[in-house]
Amino acid sequence: MARRLDPKFRVTPTIRLLSDVAVRSFRNPDERDVVSTPPRTGKSQTAVIWNVVWALMENPDLKIVVVAYGDDLAQTHSREARKIINEHQEFLGYRLAQDKTAVGRWRVDGHEGGLLAAGINSGVTGFGADCLLIDDPVKDQAEADSKAHRNRILNEYRSTLAPRVHPGGSVIVIQTRWHEADLTGSLLAQEPDVWRHTNIPAVSEAGVPDALGRLPGVTMISALGFTPEHYAAMRRTSGERTWHALYQGVPSAPEGGLVKASWLEGWRLPAAPSGSVLTVVGVDPADSGQGDSCGIVAASLTSEGVTAVIADVSAPLTSDAWARAAVRLAVDVGASEISVESFAAGETYRRVVREALASEGVRRPIRVTAWPPKGSGRGRGDAMARSAALLQGLEVGTVRLAGHFPKLEDAAVLWQAGQHQPDQLAALVVAHDVLIHSVGREWSMAGPQELGGSSAPAGGGSVTGMSDWMSRRVG
Q1: 441 pLDDT higher than 70
Q2: Which of 111, 314, 403, 443 is the most core-located residue (most Cβ within 10 A)?
Q3: What pLDDT score was predicted for residue 291?
């Protein structure tokens, strides 16, 4: 049906298998399927969008619920299905009811069937399901690494979603894997006799389940044209843990040493890079003020997008002492920002650092910021979740040590899942996050007053007239 209605729709072995799973779930009662595929394989297009359109053509009285990690994604799927139905209603043999046309909730005209699309935490109260489609219930690595978030997803499925499925109704969970205890992993571990698992790895590999039955070493045929070379590059870029989770469908627990000594040594720089784009001091403060251990690390962003760790002065310090140490380090390395982890007392920490700047007589401007920025959505989850981007960067070389830092390196290599995060690493998480979110920042200066043909203000420097700036020719 998809190929007939959309000439650009490409049927690959993966797409054909996903179609078979979808048909089986709608035609057989009480089916329970979990499907894992790499990103960008057409899984949502096939199993969620075209599947809904086809199923309602087969039975316009079906009630279907589509759930994703957020309302936006779920409603995007709903909008795509509605568009297909509106464009091809004569071929399909049904149309949408005019009185129920909300983006995330609509009904088939003259029938009981329809669709409800919602984020997994939004609830589906008042709507039963003959088929429940759960597509990518986890947004990213940070959510997946957060045990609290994983528990929320599983509890939401068991307490809210599963009870909405009618007797004889079916459930499909289709996702890119992130963690061995994500929703797919939890369902397979807790109810192995109930759920049927279909795993399609990007590259077939001995010991990795492959529903396509390929010989080892065969790359999947991609609807978007990804080649073996593309997947090899993805593996190098993403790192082994991410590769096996997202692309092979076999995530492993982040246990043992979370940071490998080989990563630190293999990507080490001989010295701090020259001509850095931005330098930041990250601080994990001593919370009690009684001389607890405090993380203070400086890092620079190079023009190639590499975060270089250039200094570590972490030590057991009182609040006044760590603030002064952070200021002195910022002056020594030429940092333009001091960012302090501020889950507890952000304004207090910023005030202490500002007072240290004043007492040290620092004349040049140094920003003092609280991390994570309020309303940014960054820094969510536990320490493991917050460290995900840093760990991946250390593995693939986008984060490198410039020189040797014995205490930081020993603490990093000894850190294991479930343990308290070393203060040096917590500070580096802050600095790294600030740097990677600074990429692309730039400033243009414009003044609202016309300057009579002269762009030189009395105090020196230059300011462009607003009208000139707004009417400038670009490219």
Answers
A1: no
A2: 314
A3: 45
Q: Which two tokens stand for residue 267?
A: 């990507």
Question: Cβ distance 301 to 307 under 8 Å?
Answer: yes
Residue that the structure tokens 């935490």 belong to: 121
- Ranges 79-93, 122-136, 212-226: which has the least confidence: 122-136
The two three-digit tokens of residue 299, written as one number: 């890092």
Strand partners, 315: 294
How confident is the model over 109-134, as a mean pLDDT?
Answer: 88
**For strand 464-465 and strand 446-447, is the pairing parallel, antiparallel, or unpaired?**
parallel
**Res 459 pLDDT > 70:** no
Work out whether strand 96-102 and strand 165-175 pair parallel, antiparallel, or are unpaired.
unpaired
453 within domain boundaries: no
What average pLDDT does this structure show over 9-13?
A: 93
Q: Which amino acid is at 313?
A: V
Q: What is the DSSP string of 376-412?
A: S-TT-SSHHHHTHHHHHHHHHTSEEEBS--HHHHHHH
Residue 159 in any domain: the answer is yes
Q: Rounded to whole angstroms, how far apart are CA atoms 275 and 438? A: 16
CA nearest to 421, candidates 451, 400, 391: 391
The CATH number given to whatever domain includes residue 364 is 3.30.420.320
Is the pLDDT at 100 greater than 80? The verdict is no
Through-space distance between the first and last CA atoms of the chain, rounded to whole angstroms: 45
Dist CA 16 CA 370 (whole Å): 50
- Asked if residues 172 and 35 have their Cβ atoms less than 8 Å apart, the reply is yes
Contact 85, 53 (CB under 8 A): yes
CA 196, CA 282: separation in Å to the nearest integer? 47
CA dihedral for 78, 250, 240, 144, sign (positive or negative): positive
Enumerate long-range contacts of 422-425, CB under 8 Å, 24 or more apart. 422/295, 423/284, 423/293, 423/294, 423/295, 423/314, 424/284, 424/295, 424/297, 424/312, 424/314, 425/259, 425/295, 425/387, 425/390
Query: Which domain covers residue 185, as residue numbers?
Result: 2-247
Give the integer Cα–Cα distance in Å for 401 and 310. 7
Q: Is residue 266 part of a domain?
A: yes
CA 80 – CA 71 distance, rounded (Å) = 14
**360-389 pLDDT per residue, tens:** 999 889 999 999 998 888 888 888 889 989
Is residue 203 within 8 A of residue 218, CB to CB? The reply is: yes
Same domain, residue pair 181 and 100: yes
Domain count, the chain: 2
C-alpha atoms less than 13 angstroms from C-alpha of 55 in its C-beta half-sphere: 31
